[in-house]
Design brief:
six-stranded mixed β-sheet, 20 strands, Ribosomal Protein S5, domain 2, single chain, alpha+beta, OB fold (Dihydrolipoamide Acetyltransferase, E2P)
Length: 346
C-alpha cells in the first residue's frame, strides 16, 4: 500500500496505532499495560517528598498511592503540592519520571505555562503564512497570563484558521484550569493520551493518505507482520549484513555483523547501514536509556564517516538522543529518552 497510512486497532488486549509509509512500518504506538501506572503525558497534582541527598531530585506522591521521580526539585518544600506531568514510562520496579514543565498538546498547538512567547514550527517556511498564523495566535491568546506561551505546530499550516484558533483556545482554557487547581490531595487532572489520540495528534503532518481502522486493521494492512518481525533480535541489512538489538535491564546492546562479505569495505558498508536503521529499530521497539553499539571492526579513520551518518539518522527523531561517543574498547554509546512503552508482550 503506497503513501502514508495510519492504522488504528489492537494488538492483543492493548490499543495500538501504526504508521505505514509505502508499505513499511515507520512508527508504532501502544497503549500502556493495565498495571503500567500513570500514562506518559498525564498531568497530576502531586505532593512533594523529601529531597534525595546527592541526586538533586525527589520522589513525589501521585494519585492512587503511586510515586514519581522529579529531578527539578529546587525550592520545593516537603509536603508542598506541586503540578507535574509524567514524561515517560516507568521501568520495572522504578517510579515514572515527572516534570514541573507542563505541556498541553493538541493537533495544532502546544500551550507552554512558564515558557512565554510565541513560536511557530520551522517547517512552516512561507513568510505570509507565518504572519497570518502569528496574528491568529495572538488573538486566541489575548488575555492569557504573561508567563503562558504557545507553539504552533506544522499541521496548523494546512488547517482551517477557525479550527486552529479553537484548538488554541481549548488548550489555553485547559491550561488555565489546571494551573488554578493546585490545592488538595494528589489527583489525576489530565489523562495521558492513548495510542490513537497520539497518532491523531502527532502524525497529522503531512496528512495521511488513508486511515485504516477495525479489529483486523493491523492484519489487513500488513502492519501485524511488520510488528511480529520486531519479536526477533535480528534485523537484516543490505548486502547480507545484520543488526542485533537486545534489551537488558541495564542497557540496550546492539551488535553489527558483516555477514559473508569479507571485502575491505564490508565493515564500513555494514556499519553505515546499521547507523541508518538504528533509530527506526529503537523507535519501533520502544527502547531507550543507554544504548551500546558494537559496530563491525573497521579502521579508526572511518569513525568520522560513521559518526556523520549516525547523527544524520537521529536528527529527525522526536525522542531526545545524545550520542556520547566511542569507548576505549571501541564501542559507541548513546542515550535515548524513554518516550513510550516498550513493545513487550501483547
Amino acid at each position: 500500500m503506497k503513501g502514508r497510512v495510519v492504522v488504528l486497532g489492537r494488538l492483543g488486549d492493548r490499543g495500538a496505532a501504526a504508521l505505514m509509509v509505502d508499505g513499511r512500518l515507520d512508527d508504532l504506538l501502544l497503549d500502556p499495560p493495565a498495571d503500567g501506572g500513570p500514562w506518559p503525558g498525564a498531568i497530576c497534582r502531586a505532593r512533594a517528598g523529601r529531597p534525595m541527598k546527592g541526586q538533586g531530585g525527589m520522589f513525589v506522591d501521585l494519585p492512587g498511592g503511586q510515586r514519581g521521580y522529579l529531578r527539578e526539585a529546587k525550592g520545593l518544600a516537603p509536603g508542598a503540592p506541586v503540578l507535574v506531568q509524567v514524561t515517560g514510562p516507568a521501568e520495572p520496579g522504578k517510579a515514572p519520571p515527572v516534570s514541573r514543565r507542563l505541556l498541553f498538546k493538541s493537533r495544532h498547538a502546544i500551550v507552554t505555562p512558564g515558557a512565554p512567547g510565541l513560536n511557530i514550527s520551522r517547517r512552516i517556511r512561507d513568510a505570509e503564512m507565518r504572519e497570518e498564523l502569528s496574528s491568529l495566535a495572538m488573538g486566541a491568546m489575548k488575555g492569557a497570563a504573561e508567563d503562558i506561551g504557545l507553539i504552533l505546530r506544522s499541521a496548523a499550516e494546512r488547517a482551517d484558521p477557525d479550527e486552529v484558533a479553537e484548538d488554541i483556545r481549548a488548550m489555553r482554557q485547559l491550561a488555565e484550569t489546571v494551573l488554578a487547581d493546585l490545592e488538595g490531595a494528589p489527583e489525576l487532572l489530565v489523562d495521558g493520551p492513548d495510542a490513537a489520540e497520539t497518532a491523531w495528534r502527532d502524525w497529522a503532518d503531512p496528512p495521511p493518505d488513508a486511515v485504516e481502522e477495525g479489529e483486523d486493521a493491523f492484519e489487513r494492512t500488513g502492519a501485524l507482520d511488520a510488528v511480529e518481525a520486531l519479536r526477533t533480535a535480528r534485523v537484516t541489512l543490505p548486502g547480507g549484513a545484520s543488526l542485533f538489538v537486545e534489551p537488558t535491564r541495564a542497557l540496550v546492546a546492539v551488535d553489527v555483523n558483516t555477514g559473508g562479505d569479507t571485502s575491505p569495505a564490508a565493515a564500513l558498508k555494514a556499519n553505515v547501514a546499521a547507523a541508518r536503521e538504528l533509530p527506526r529499530q529503537l523507535r519501533l521497539r520502544g527502547l531507550g536509556g543507554m544504548v551500546v553499539v558494537d559496530f563491525a571492526p573497521m579502521p579508526k579513520r572511518d569513525r568520522a564517516t560513521l559518526d556523520q551518518q549516525l547523527r544524520a539518522a537521529f536528527k529527525g527523531e522526536a525522542a531526545e538522543t545524545t550520542i556520547a561517543g566511542w569507548t576505549p574498547l571501541g564501542n559507541l554509546e548513546l542515550q535515548r529518552k524513554r518516550d513510550r512503552w516498550p513493545l513487550g508482550a501483547f
